[in-house]
């Protein structure tokens, strides 16, 4: 199918116009115009920490390393820190908020160690199958492309 000549000439102009709109932020991108009030954010973040601390008192300290026991509390804490950072016109996460969150992690999760996962190779039959399927699909696609390019009179 051949495009009309007028459409071919107007297409680059349209693409440049759309690119210009996206570059200027008219395509839905939000540009922050206010400066971050870091001192206000640092005043508000401890409220989130206190709230999280109160919620964590409900959880047995032996279960603090089990995320399923307090995931809702942690989600509330995360949303609180994000809300407070945004109310101070700061992006989230930012270095100050991350430092505060790291302090909370040290307070509650310093005794939680991650067990080293011992990775093992799958059995040879599965490994060979996982390797051969993409190789065969790649070969089939290359063959199909070459065959179709030689048979352009039909397409």
Could you describe the 3D structure shown?
- The chain has 155 residues and is mainly alpha-helical.
- The chain has a domain of 77 residues: Orthogonal Bundle (DNA polymerase, domain 1).
- It contains 5 helices and no strands.
- It is flat, with a radius of gyration of 28 Å.
- The mean pLDDT is 84.
List the helices and strands and how they pair.
Blueprint: H1 5-24, H2 38-56, H3 67-87, H4 95-109, H5 124-150
Helix pairs in contact: 2-3, 2-4
Transmembrane segments: 12-30, 126-148
GO cellular component, one term: receptor complex
Organism: Eubucco bourcierii
Summarize the structure.
The chain has 155 residues and is mainly alpha-helical. It has helices at 5-24, 38-56, 67-87, 95-109, 124-150.
Name the descriptors.
glycoprotein, 155 residues, Receptor activity-modifying protein 3, transport, DNA polymerase, domain 1, 5 helices, flat, coreceptor activity, mainly alpha, membrane
